[in-house]
Amino acid sequence: MRGYFGIGVEGINKPFNVGNLFRSAHAFDASFVFTIAATYRRAEGAQTDTSDTLANLPFYSFPKMDDLMLPKGCALVGVELHDDAVELPSFTHPRCAAYVLGPERSSLSPALTARCDHLLRIPTRFCLNVGIAGVVVMYDRLLTMGRFAPRPVMPGGPPPELGGAFARHRAPAPLAEVALADRDGEDLTDAG
């Protein structure tokens, strides 16, 4: 995958949520993590960040939003339940991006929202935990920007020629799906 991404939070004060987010960022191969105007104690966050992300990735702690500095060409993407935000399934991720999530029980500050190059929202009925929301965004980035085989029409993995290493793990299709595949192209609207 080309490009890079970082992920961070603004105004958060629950170290377990930050630790969880940072651990997930490390797992998804983030290039850096950051906080803005947040209280994050590494010792407390380490209880959920079992991969010790801060020993393996650059960590930037910006005391206030005006201190935020990103690499040239890095788009700031706010993750927020905002009326003007693009829903995640319709969002094209920038090649170089820094994703920022808001604090628990609140939103990104108006100043940070205005500074964002893009706003995206996860289409849920209500807000998610910060760590979970970060994972959803990072997984979507991986899925849409990675080089994976296209999803098959039928349930299961890629065809054997694309995913031969996984063929031995693939279960046979249920009989109902085999029957549907056998009737491919048959007009079922005139049944009767």
Keywords:
single chain; 192 residues; alpha/beta; Alpha/beta knot; 7-stranded parallel beta sheet; 7 strands; disordered C terminus
Report on this structure.
This protein is α/β, with parallel strands linked by helices. It has one domain: SPOUT methyltransferase, trefoil knot domain (Alpha/beta knot). Helix content is 27%, strand content 17%. The protein contains six helices and seven strands. It has helices at 15-27, 42-45, 110-115, 130-145, 160-163, 175-182; strands at 4-10, 32-36, 59-62, 75-79, 86-87, 96-101, 118-121. Strands 3-2-1-6-4-7-5 form a seven-stranded parallel sheet. The longest helix has 16 residues, at 130-145. The chain is globular, with a radius of gyration of 21 Å. The protein starts with a strand and ends in a 10-residue tail after the last helix.
Globally, the shape reads globular
State which percent range the strand residues make up: 15-25%
For this structure, the CATH topology is Alpha/beta knot
- Kindly state the percentage of residues in helix: 25-40%
Compute the CA-based radius of gyration: 21 Å
> Order of strands across the biggest sheet?
3-2-1-6-4-7-5
Number of distinct helices: 6
Spell out the helices and strands N to C.
EHEHEEEEHEHHH
Major sheet details: 7 strands, parallel
- Total number of domains: 1
Low-pLDDT stretches: 166-170, 188-192
| Rounded mean pLDDT score | 82
User: Helix/strand-derived class?
Assistant: alpha/beta
